[in-house]
User: Fold this.
Amino acid sequence: MRIDLHTHSNRSDGTDPVDVLIAHAKRDGLDVIALTDHDTADGWGEGRRAAEDLGIGFVPGIEISCKLSGISVHLLGYLPDPSYQPLADELATVREGRTDRLPSIVARLNEMGVALTVDEVLAQATGTPSVGRPHVADALVANGTVANRSEAFDRFLADGRPGHVSHYAIEPGRAIDLVCAAGGVPVIAHPWGRSSYKVMTAEMIAQLVSDHGLAGIEVDHQDHSPESRTALRAIAQDLGIIYTGSSDHHGVGKIDHELGVNTTDPEQFQRLLDVAKSNAAAATDATVPEAYLP
Assistant:
């Protein structure tokens, strides 16, 4: 069984419509796919319908923007109730923060002599409530400033680059609490990728497990070296938590993240479903979704 638990559609910063993403997953031999768009559950209904039509397993999820000591950290929440009000309110605040920073990003780029308008960015974000830096990158590609998203981030938009502007994000412990209260399963995404390795130490992971109920960490990811994967798997095993593998697929918006490039072991996936069942039973104020598993 091939299981990919981290993918994005054009409901956030992926490039494929939801139904196309599901069709590609089926084409590429996946048995189960999770849709984990940034800070939104907007694609879940369409994703489930497409999965049912094609006979492929579907797990609804969200990738939540977090920040710890000023460092970006992402949390994957599987099977939470997106209408659980405290969670819905925080996600709305995150999305608003993403959109509200666009004029500042554009102004910084303009000061550098880069021609760009907010309207050009919004034109690249059609159909998503979660506008982010990838849409700025797509606008820069569209007007010929850069060749692709990678160049846009490397030159202008990555953390520490001149066009980067921070936005509101949730503290990881609170995000984990919210996912659990909404009946979902919290898993830290690519904990040693990008800059999150600076704060996602073994000690911090253990603290998030003991104090907040963190259920797992994403181990097999393209941002992790073989050595990091070995060390992270050992941390997960020592803590008795789930470890997953996934592609973090964004369509053509992210190279070297093809569907199924990393997958989750079926035993670990079953553990995730077991935690989901337990958390759902404890979430008296939430109406949790179900995974579709043909």
